[in-house]
Specification:
By secondary structure, the chain is of the alpha/beta class. The protein is built from 20 helices and 28 strands. Strands 18, 19, 20, 21, 23, 24, 25, 26, 27 and 28 form a ten-stranded mixed sheet that branches. The protein has a five-stranded parallel sheet with strand order 2-1-3-6-7, sandwiched between helices. Strand 4 and strand 5 form a beta hairpin. The radius of gyration is 26 Å and the shape is globular.
């Protein structure tokens, strides 16, 4: 993503896309008078069809685009298609009379402002240009913060996909984990800076995904680190597919990226490949892929290595890694005990696989040292009912810092040995922190609301401590009603097991501050009906799972019939987003829809990456 010019500097260039010649002339007149030094460019969609793939978006500071582009096309589709292009400019959408909702939708997908054509004036146009440039610059600043952090949600989702593959792999099919390292990352970073380097690595990620899709594979591709791209490919018919993909990337693909008209970024890469088998341990798979990638880097640019082993199960699977074993030979070749590289064999180095011990966590010390990183996953409105809710909603997640460059999700505490404190202490911390965030947002944005989904532990729900804690905090706040947009999440089994205590807690929260409640991980229709009827839950949350979407559709439909708003999480593709809308979900969430972020912004400011 390219940094935007300072909003106070003179405007240098404007691009207008409109199929109406008369309106293009009017904009040329207005813009020429307001910004006489600016270079004006015009694109007629009736004459040129769509912009080509190499269209120079980065050479323009501001784009003014009409919604109606003729021949059944519209600006919103073009915005969705092109706005992830490198250096895409600040955008103003033009709409006809009665298209205000479409204009707001365009801002959700990347535009910074919009103008109703019937209300166009020089003053309104100047205001829109100034506003668009300011928001664009602000979003680039937010983007800088985002790319400096580890995208934890992506990693967690990817980890789960690998785990699913090790437990649900189809008989007779093959799966592979590939890790790609950008060799010249540090050099590019030193010469070009953070934003261009990050944009280049995102380009590599996208290119790898497109390459695999072109080979009729269905990959999960994610940036696991600054210079590392990791890919999972599943349900392959061929035991040699992982190696062939790596070979193709190393031999055929040039990762050449046009950062701006004068700068092209290019770097060789290295890949490590490991086969994924039923019962494999995910952490060891990632470790072996990393080791294979390092071996490939020692061999030189554009080399790959295949890690050869019989198993990566841990002691809990009755067997540890025995070290290298022959890799299955492609047709016509003999088996070998060596790791294959692009230019020749590279000896395998066995990696010992000690059985991992349960992580010991001292929550008291973590909270005392404030070693907690909150991050936020935005929800987008998918239904008409959701668009009437005047709040931007986010899922609050926590990372606990347990060592140098080592974090653990708060949700994974159940797999840890807690040596001090209890999960209920985290609920108190996050509630206090989020109330502070809501008060800070209110000072900046006034009445605009921000809603937060916060998952609570059973320890908190079985006692009054959270209610008393919030009561003390809100007594000292300037706006006691600030908690009305908080949504506390409960797990159905916990609610049913401690219903009496939970109902008292729910009633107190609702009566005092109007707090809402949600159910998550709902799988049983009868349990859902009991919970909603007795607890009056306002939201019900589901996870996107293509293997059980028919069941999810039935249970979510029942939730809406009972008056709850439904949320679908973990949307990972355009197809899944279309499915969510088709099934009538009210809100959607996932990295494909909106990336997680390390600070709260309101819906009109959410960045589309």
């Amino acid at each position: 993503m390219q940094a935007a010019p300072d909003q106070d500097s003179p405007l240098k260039s404007v691009l207008v896309i409109d199929d109406d010649e008369g309106f293009r002339i009017l904009l040329k007149t207005f813009l020429g008078k307001m910004f006489p030094e600016a270079r004006l460019s015009f694109f007629d969609p009736l004459e040129h069809d769509e912009p080509p793939a190499d269209f120079p978006w980065s050479s323009h500071e501001v784009l003014i685009m009409d919604y109606e582009l003729g021949r059944g096309r519209n600006g919103l589709d073009w915005l969705r298609k092109y706005q992830t292009s490198s250096g895409f400019p600040a955008t103003i959408m033009l709409t006809g009379h009665g298209n205000e909702e479409l204009a707001v939708e365009s801002m959700r997908f990347g535009a910074q402002d919009y103008i109703n054509k019937s209300k166009l004036s020089m003053d309104r146009l100047a205001q829109a240009v100034q506003s668009a440039r300011a928001k664009h610059q602000q979003q680039n600043r937010l983007s800088t913060t985002l790319v400096q952090q580890s995208n934890v949600f992506n990693k967690v989702t990817f980890y789960r996909k690998i785990k699913e593959t090790t437990t649900q792999q189809k008989a007779g099919s093959f799966a592979f984990l590939l890790q790609l390292q950008v060799r010249n990352f540090r050099t590019i970073y030193a010469e070009q800076g953070l934003l261009r380097t990050d944009a280049y690595c995102n380009y590599i990620t996208d290119t790898v995904a497109k390459l695999m899709l072109s080979q009729r594979l269905e990959p999960n591709v994610v940036r696991m680190g600054d210079a590392i791209v990791t890919c999972l490919i599943r349900d392959c018919d061929d035991a040699g597919m992982g190696e062939r993909v790596a070979q193709n990337i190393c031999r055929e693909v040039r990762f050449s990226y046009q950062a701006d008209p004068n700068v092209v970024l290019e770097s060789p890469v290295n890949l490590g490949v490991v086969a994924v088998k039923p019962g494999d341990d995910v952490d060891l798979l990632l470790m072996h892929a990393d080791r294979a990638c390092l071996d490939a880097m020692e061999s030189g640019p554009n080399e790959y290595c295949v890690y050869a082993r019989e198993s990566v199960t841990t002691a809990t699977g009755a067997r540890s890694d025995p070290g290298p074993a022959p890799i299955p030979a492609p047709p016509g070749e003999s088996a070998t005990t060596e790791v294959k590289a692009k230019t020749g064999p590279v000896p395998v180095v066995a990696v010992p696989a000690p059985a991992p011990a349960a992580v010991s966590i001292d929550l008291t010390a973590i909270i005392k040292s404030n070693s907690i990183q909150p991050y936020y996953q935005p929800y987008i409105a998918l239904s008409e009912a959701a668009t009437t809710v005047k709040a931007s909603y986010y899922q609050v997640q926590l990372n606990l810092i347990i060592g140098p460059d080592q974090t653990i999700r708060a949700q994974d505490l159940r797999n840890c040995k807690i040596s001090g404190g209890n999960p209920g202490m985290l609920d108190l911390w996050v509630t206090r922190h989020m109330l502070g965030q809501l008060l800070a947002l209110e000072k900046v944005h006034g009445a605009t609301k921000c809603g937060l989904f916060i998952r609570l532990s059973p320890e908190t729900l079985s006692q009054r401590i959270l209610f008393n804690w919030m009561q003390d905090l809100l007594k000292k706040s300037s706006n006691p009603n600030i908690a009305s947009t908080i949504v506390f999440e409960l797990h159905p089994p916990d609610f049913l097991a401690h219903k009496k205590n939970f109902m008292s807690f729910i009633d107190q929260m609702r009566d005092a501050w109007g707090v809402a409640f949600a159910l998550y991980d709902v799988v049983n229709a009868s349990v859902l009906g009991t919970c909603i009827k007795q607890g009056g839950f306002e939201f019900v949350k589901f996870a996107m799972d293509e293997k059980s979407m028919e069941h999810v559709a039935q249970v979510s439909s029942q939730a809406r019939e009972l008056g709850a708003l439904t949320v679908i999480e973990n949307i990972g593709s355009a197809r899944q987003l279309a499915t969510a809308i088709e099934l009538g979900f009210d809100y959607g969430q996932g990295e494909f829809v909106q990336p997680s972020m390390d600070q709260l912004v309101l819906s009109t400011e959410v960045i589309t990456m």
